[in-house]
Amino acid sequence: MTGDETTEETAKRVNLPLFYASSFQTIWTSNDLSLMFNANNAVMLPDGGLAAAPSPVALLSMSPQSAKDLLIVLRDGIEAYEKMYGEINTDFVTRRAAQSSGPENDTGE
Question: Tell me: the pLDDT tens digits for 28-60?
């Protein structure tokens, strides 16, 4: 076995918390970017019905420089994913595309 091979006997599990987020919020200052990740939790309404309410699960803060590096790495990863599996469409992506092709951006050509 070479030093590059990994087996179950030699592999060690990374013991870090795992978070799932279905949404996020961004908070910017001149020195930091913070990402607050949220997950939807079921809540009981006063009338007995159920609703989904976002609940924070993690906060990640970084410098603008690290945020830019993260942007590049994520963009490259998403592009590779879409080449393999097809375009990812979300409500946000659809709204953003509609805004950028709206009449205020029409050059009249």
Answer: 999 999 999 999 989 999 999 999 898 999 999
List of long-range contacts for 49-55, beta carbons under 8 Å, 24+ apart? 54/22, 54/23
Same structural domain, 28 and 57 = yes
How long a stretch of residues is the chain? Answer: 109
**Domain residues for 92?**
64-100
CA 97 – CA 22 distance, rounded (Å): 21
- The whole-angstrom separation of Cα 77 and Cα 83 is 10
Phi, psi of 5 (to 5 degrees): -85, 145
Please measure the distance between the N-terminal and C-terminal CA atoms of the chain and give it in whole angstroms: 64
